Amino acid sequence: MKVLIKLTVLSVLFFSINLSADFIGSGENITTVSKVKYAGPDTSIVLQGNIIKKIRPDDYIFRDSTGKIKIEIDALGWKNMTVTPDTLIRIYGKLGNGRIGNVDLVITRVEIIETGSQ
After folding, report:
1. At a CB cut-off of 8 Å and minimum separation 6, what does 65 contact?
2. Any idea where the domains of the chain sit in the sequence?
3. CATH topology for 25-114?
4. Which helix (H) or strand (E) holds 73?
5. What pLDDT band is residue 19 in, cutting at 50, 70 and 90?
6. What is the pLDDT of residues 29-86, one digit of tens each?
7. With the C-alpha atoms ordered 67, 71, 76, 81, is the resulting torsion angle positive or negative?
8. CA dist 117 → 33, 47, 87, 111 (Å)
9. In terms of DSSP bridges, do strands 105-114 and 59-64 run parallel, antiparallel, or are they unpaired?
């Protein structure tokens, strides 16, 4: 009976840990646009910079100090926030399986670091 209780407790703990798998703590790896092109599909990416242009409803041009990249952010990624080209943001996403030579960066979360009006 004690073994069954221990297994039940361990199972609950194991599944609870897996449910919080998308948490990114202070050890997040912020990379640069210039390094993204060397990353493989399904690589998690964190970038810091500015969105400088909207090119389609969910497609934008993002810029950091090393270059520019096309990104995709849907309404869920925005979480009802508004940014301008002067707003410093951090974006979290994943590289998709884009065509050869094309980077497909899908953003799942946007954080405002600093607004441009300061």
Report:
1. 32, 49
2. 25-114
3. OB fold (Dihydrolipoamide Acetyltransferase, E2P) (2.40.50)
4. strand 67-73
5. very low
6. 788 999 988 888 888 999 999 999 999 999 999 999 999 999 999 888 888 899 999 9
7. positive
8. 25, 21, 8, 16
9. unpaired
